[in-house]
Design brief:
Chain A is of the alpha+beta class. Chain A has helices at 11-29, 33-48, 114-118, 187-192, and strands spanning 59-67, 70-75, 79-84, 98-104, 107-112, 130-134, 141-145, 147-155, 159-160, 165-166, 169-170, 174-178, 182-185, 198-199. With 723 residues, chain B is an alpha/beta fold. Classes of the chains: A alpha+beta (206), B alpha/beta (723). At the A-B interface, strand 4, strand 5 and strand 14 of A face helix 6, helix 13, strand 17, strand 18 and strand 19 of B. Strand 14 of chain A pairs parallel with strand 17 (553-555) of chain B, so a sheet runs across the interface.
Chain lengths: 206, 723
């Protein structure tokens, strides 16, 4: 017999312990909406995080996306986010390649249809329900895509120098093409392109 | 705190202080130049001394040395060792400018070596007479406060932070409107439950007697139904009460919050005028004119966006006033005026607007010279002088006979006008030959939340600023007058030119209206312009949060911004002045009268378009609408099914892959229902295998169009065959 048995059982204490345990278990199962939101946010952040370490020099960190029948890539450090396009508003009088504007968490963002920008003939009907938002310091504009394919590393040696044009896109916007026909666009050239600043004022600002 | 972080924050604080110090230097130097006074010298000295200490703590050696020299020069002046010559003042002013420029460099993390300030150092040393005693700094510079607190309970906050507050506040406003909409939705649900309960009560007896004949389980369900409806109604009732109370509570908390944010952003008008005084001084020195500069209403408070936006227009107008307005001293004497000219800038509140005037007592505008220039540029020239002088706002206009160093650089009054109009303001002017010119800018007090009229046109939402809306009318074909080939409506006493908003914006117009129907018309005014615009619908008048069109749409004709509606959709905010000019100068493309006289169109066929992609949905909808169909759109099969129950349709065009209910399931549901069995279904899909096609035919689709080979002619032909 253990010496413990000699002690009378403290039922009060036992009940209190069970109650505490129950509360703890229930508390861990039933999250308050705030807590649930916090947990989900945390998870979303963890998932959305791009690997922090810069890729080795022989590799390029890229975001790939599908548009019509082609697959494109842009360097990840020029991509602010990938958003789902659920609503947009056309802006009258803007160039044809500007589909319109949309609100990304309250900030208005211009939507560009790269096919029209590059002058690639448009065939068929595709989803165009994703927005690849380009920019470095802040969001510059969103590029329409059918699907975001993910983030991968490209080996520089797998990248063939661009021919004069690929799929109707001029060399000035190209960084290269892989054997799998993934077209690496020059995001910096797109971001810096004057045509992608719409300014219809008759007078230039100083 | 990390060391880098500390330095970064110290630098941010330093740069903020630097701006204040430069401002103080300029202000006191101007005062000193006008009237030498020992107390001004003392303040200047203190400013130079604090800036020196601050510069040392962030290791900005060039600024530190420059301030040290300033101290020496100032003590020289105080002790009478130095003479306050115009050259010396020029050097001191240049130093203030160069310190500001150096601050800019530090902000950009650029080097100060080779900066204008570094280049001024030898001249400063020479002016200080090579003396080096100055006032030694305490061996340890006082540590700067990394906290952004200033004396007197004031806190320095960056403009971006304030803008972020407004953005967040704007989201809150949208959410509040949404909550209101939810409360309304709930109220209608409650009404529905009440009706249901009444209906039950009316047939209660019958139901009870019928129930007796039913099997026990059915009987009990039937009997409990009334109780359940009552419970449902009770719960809805308390839920509706709760939501209404919440909405009120949110409103009570949010409204003062918004008001405080709005007030925090308000800055005194005097801040816009900073730098103007210095400008006047520099201009009068370089032109040899004596000009007195007066600011009135410096304490009128305006939103910082307006304050910022006014800086360039005011600078331009003041420059013009001195360069072109104020005459030389000799000319003024001849004209019997005081030798010294006077330029006044003032601000005054006029209701929810502010009126800003820039006035000079110079020569006024020269109508002949304006006409002459217009002739040379072969511009169309109005007969009336009152119209001709408005040419000064035309791009390319300049009256400066010689392009001076500071004005007349091709940036003209048109820029002033464009800027002010983009802030929803107007520019007016008046002048008296030989007596002076007066420009009046009228602007709203804030640009962040404004009262606006929301309208629909060509299927899109647009907003007019409340201050531009003069009147709302409903116009029938009989109200139109044709004057000089233009359609006009009578508003009050006078006819106002009428255009279709969609036509001016280049959007497809609304097809024929039923004869006798009235069209909503918005009469706008800006300055002395009036014009009326026909729209499809007047939606609401409410407070909206004004947003810019984003980083890339800098200037778009007729549009100055956007706002987010409670539905989550965007509405474009129109530039009233530009729109009116567009309407007045452009021949009416589509006479409105034609909209009524068109033969009554046969009842349109009603199509239901279903696609989960917003781009595809919008594209299909516009193709079909342009072909004369009445189109409703749904985001997936489930929504389509409920829309079909609600409104019916003559034909359905659906995508296959969709969340909740896909195209196959939707087709099956349609074929399985008694009511819609005969409605043709066209599937437009990315699933192109034979098996998918077979499945499509199997569930009863009438046509199966592959997206990859999509062609609008093909779609329209298919639809025509099926209808």
């Amino acid at each position: 017999m253990s010496p413990r048995r000699s002690k009378p059982i403290d039922w009060e204490e036992a009940r209190a312990r069970i109650a505490r345990a129950t509360a703890a278990i229930e508390g861990s199962l039933e999250l308050s909406p705030e807590r649930a939101r916090a947990v989900l946010d945390e998870r979303a952040r963890a998932m959305a995080q791009m690997p922090a370490a810069p890729p080795p020099a022989d590799r390029l960190h890229v975001v790939t996306f599908a548009l019509a029948s082609e697959r494109y890539a842009v360097e990840a450090n020029h991509v602010r986010e990938i958003a789902r396009l659920t609503a947009y508003e056309p802006v009258p009088g803007t160039p044809e390649f500007v589909l319109g504007i949309t609100s990304l968490r309250g900030e208005i963002t211009m939507i560009v249809d790269l096919r029209r920008f590059f002058g690639v003939p448009i065939k068929g009907l595709t989803d165009l329900s994703r927005l690849v938002v380009l920019g470095t310091e802040h969001a510059e504009f969103g590029v329409l895509a059918d699907e975001a394919l993910g983030v991968t590393d490209l080996r520089r040696q797998d990248l063939a120098p661009p021919p004069a044009s690929v799929a109707g896109i001029g060399r000035e916007y190209l960084r290269g093409v892989t054997r799998e026909a993934l077209i690496l666009l020059d995001a910096a050239a797109l971001i810096g392109d004057r045509r992608l600043f719409v300014d219809q004022g008759g007078n230039q600002d100083r | 705190m990390e060391k880098d972080e500390l330095i970064r924050r110290l630098m941010a604080t330093f740069l903020g202080e630097l701006e204040d110090h430069v401002r103080a230097l300029n202000c006191d130097l101007l005062a000193l130049e006008k009237k030498p006074a020992p107390e001004v010298l003392a303040t200047l000295f203190r400013t130079a001394h604090s800036l020196k200490g601050a510069a040392r703590s962030v290791g900005a050696g060039v600024i530190e040395t420059a301030c040290h020299r300033l101290e020496e020069i100032l003590s020289g002046l105080r002790e009478g060792r130095e003479a306050a010559s115009p050259d010396l003042f020029q050097l001191l002013f240049s130093t203030a400018d160069a310190i500001q420029e150096a601050g800019g460099r530090l902000k950009r993390k650029a080097d100060l070596a080779g900066s204008p300030l570094a280049e001024l150092l030898p001249r400063l040393a020479a002016a200080a007479g090579g003396k080096t005693e100055g006032v030694p700094l305490p061996p340890e510079a006082p540590p700067m406060r990394p906290v952004e607190a200033l004396e007197g309970g004031f806190v320095r906050v960056s403009g971006e932070k304030l803008d972020a507050l407004v953005t967040a506040g704007g989201e809150l406003l949208v959410a509040r409107r949404r909550t209101e909409a939810r409360a309304e939705h709930l109220a209608s649900l409650l009404e529905f439950a009440e009706r249901w309960q009444r209906e039950w009560r009316a047939v209660r007896k019958d139901v009870r007697s019928t129930a007796r004949a039913l099997p026990r389980r059915s009987a009990s369900v039937l009997e409990k139904s009334e109780e359940n409806v009552r419970a449902l109604r009770r719960n809805l009732d308390s839920l509706a009460g709760g939501i209404a109370a919440d909405a009120r509570a949110i409103e009570q908390a949010a409204a003062p919050l918004e008001e405080s944010v709005r007030r925090v952003r308000m800055l005194p008008f005097g801040e816009t005028c900073e730098g103007l005084e210095r400008l006047v001084r520099d201009l009068s020195t370089s032109s040899g004119k004596t000009v007195e500069f007066v600011i009135r209403g410096a304490d009128v408070h305006l939103d910082r966006s307006i304050i910022e936006g006014l800086k360039d227009p005011l600078t331009h107008l003041v420059r013009n006033a001195i360069d072109h307005g104020i005459e030389s001293a000799a000319a003024r004497r001849e004209g019997g005026k005081f030798e010294g000219g006077r330029v006044t800038v003032s601000a005054a509140l006029r209701g929810a607007q502010v009126e800003i005037t820039v006035e000079d007592d110079g020569r006024g505008l020269d109508v002949a010279a304006i006409r002459e220039q217009a002739r040379r540029k072969t511009w169309p020239l109005p007969d009336e002088d009152g119209e001709a002088v408005k040419l000064i706002f035309r791009p390319g206009f300049t009256t400066a006979p010689i392009v001076t160093e500071l004005s007349g650089r091709g940036v003209g009054l048109d820029v002033v006008k464009t800027r002010v109009e983009s802030m929803h303001g107007t520019v007016d002017f008046s002048f008296q030959r030989g007596r002076g010119t007066r420009f009046v800018l009228t602007l709203p007090l804030t640009l962040t939340t404004v009262r606006a009229l929301l309208v629909a046109s060509a299927g899109h939402g647009f907003a007019f600023l409340g201050t531009n809306v003069r009147k709302l009318l409903r116009v029938g074909p009989g109200d139109l007058r044709l004057i000089e080939g233009r359609e006009m409506v009578i508003c009050g006493e006078s006819p106002v030119p009428l255009s279709s908003l969609a036509a001016i914006l280049g959007l497809p117009g609304k097809a024929a209206r039923p004869a006798g129907a009235k069209v909503p018309v918005v009469v706008l005014m800006a300055g002395d312009m009036h014009a009326a615009f026909a729209v499809d619908e007047l939606l609401a008048e409410r407070e909206i949060v004004v947003k810019s069109l984003g980083a890339r749409l800098r200037r778009v004709n007729f549009i100055v911004g956007a706002t987010i509606l409670p539905t989550g959709r965007l509405a474009l905010i129109l530039n009233a002045a530009e729109l009116m000019r567009g309407a007045l100068h452009q021949a009416p493309a589509r006479p409105l009268a034609a909209a009524w006289t068109a033969p009554a169109a046969a009842a349109k066929k009603r199509l239901l378009v279903v696609d989960d992609s917003v781009t595809t949905r919008t594209l299909l909808k516009s193709i079909l609408e342009n072909s004369g169909f009445d189109v409703t759109a749904a985001v997936d099969g489930a929504e389509a099914w409920s829309l079909l129950q609600e409104r019916g349709a003559d034909l359905v065009v659906a995508d296959v892959e969709m969340p909740r209910m896909d195209g196959f399931a939707l087709t099956e549901a349609i074929r399985g229902s008694k009511r819609f069995r005969e409605v043709p279904v066209v599937l437009v899909t990315a699933l192109e295998s034979d098996r998918d096609k077979a499945r499509g035919i199997d569930v009863g689709a009438d046509a199966y169009l592959p997206k990859s080979a999509f062609d609008q002619k093909n779609l329209l032909q298919t639809i025509a065959q099926l209808l």
